[in-house]
Structure to design on (141 residues):
């Protein structure tokens, strides 16, 4: 499997994180511009951001939880040359679940659907790690 095919899902995950960051920056800018949050409140605990800004903030923060394990695994797969079609398919499933989970988190915040996408992504990531560990420990290709 090519390095590009292995890294493309990672790049999309990074783009999701950066996209949420830019969205969050704009929402917070609006909160400050409207007077809903005063600059003097920043740095003294959490200001009273708008509900939408809070949702996007939580969606952004969530990208530094499970995805960190995905990033590490992707790097290890490249270093050990264990990347194959199965890895790429599961990587795409994981990233699509992250996109859907973040979308719901930042919009409707329907916990039932958000959790479903989170759970599917988490299970896929666990399987990805299990497959990788078995391959490393057994010497399987």
């Amino acid at each position: 499997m090519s390095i590009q095919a292995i890294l493309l899902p990672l790049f999309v995950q990074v783009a999701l994180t950066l996209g949420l960051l830019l969205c969050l920056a704009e929402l917070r800018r609006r909160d400050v511009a409207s007077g809903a949050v005063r600059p003097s409140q920043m740095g003294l605990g959490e200001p009273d951001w708008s509900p939408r800004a809070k949702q996007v903030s939580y969606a952004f923060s969530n990208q530094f939880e499970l995805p960190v394990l995905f990033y590490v695994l992707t790097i290890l797969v490249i270093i050990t040359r264990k990347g194959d079609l199965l890895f790429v398919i599961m990587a795409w499933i994981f990233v699509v679940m992250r996109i859907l989970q973040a979308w719901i988190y930042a919009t409707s915040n329907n916990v039932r659907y958000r959790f479903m996408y989170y759970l599917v992504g988490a299970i896929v990531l666990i399987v990805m790690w299990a497959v990788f560990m078995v391959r490393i420990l057994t010497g399987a290709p």
